Amino acid sequence: MTGIQMKRRASLFAVIAVAAMIFVFSAQEGEDSSRLSQGVTEWVLGAVVPGYGAMSLPQKLRYLKLAGFWVRKAAHFSEYALLGATLLIHLRYAMAGRRYRAMALWSWLIATLYACTDELHQMFVGGRGPAIRDVLIDSAGALAGAWVGVAAILLWHSVRRRRAESREGNDGR
Q1: Exposed e or buried b per residue across 30-58, where buried means at least 16 C-beta atoms within 10 angstroms of its C-beta
Q2: Can you give 69-127 as a three-state secondary structure string?
Q3: Radius of gyration, alpha carbons of the chain
Q4: Would you state the pLDDT for residue 171?
């Protein structure tokens, strides 16, 4: 097996692992998902809001209600950004020779289609339901992840090129 084939398989495994993680989170019953979100939100508030731990219950509930929405949406954005980035890396090996713009577009489209199927999946999970807003947030995350992936690849190429030029310059003395 060549190095490219190994990279293609490893990157496909990463895509599948991220998609599976998203599926598992979406398969959580509404109550379990809310409990997880609340725990993360409380941790964030404890780290960001001075004196949060000493606040009265009504004050904490106000913060939880406001911040909980943003933490859940940030989770949607982040998990799909990760999917978009892993898809881009996989497509880099699967679509060798193509422009990164095309790879980013395909990564975004595939992740957005997955977001649509993920919302359909939630129709069959107790206490959950589909939301177009979530698909839009997921899609934005996937687009951001794909473009961050493009930027990382271009930066990697730039660093490698500079190192090679530096070695050539040192060898030619």
Answers
A1: eeebeeebeebbbebbeeeeeebeeeeee
A2: HHHHHHHHHHHHHHHHHHHHHHHHHHCCCCCHHHHHHHHHHHHHHHHHHHHHHHCCCCC
A3: 21
A4: 63
Whether 114 contacts 22, CB under 8 Å: yes
Distance between CA atoms of 135 and 143, rounded to whole angstroms?
12
Please give the C-alpha separations between residue 125 and each of 32, 80, 83, 112, in angstroms, as whole numbers. 11, 20, 22, 20
pLDDT tens, position by position, 156-171: 989 999 998 888 877 6
CA angle 81, 134, 42 (to 5 degrees): 80
Residue with tokens 């979406």: 26
Backbone angles phi, psi at 50, to 5 degrees: -60, 130
In this prediction, residue 1 carries a pLDDT of: 79
Which tokens belong to 49? 């809001």
Q: In the prediction, which pLDDT does 45 show?
A: 94
* Segments in the chain below pLDDT 50: none
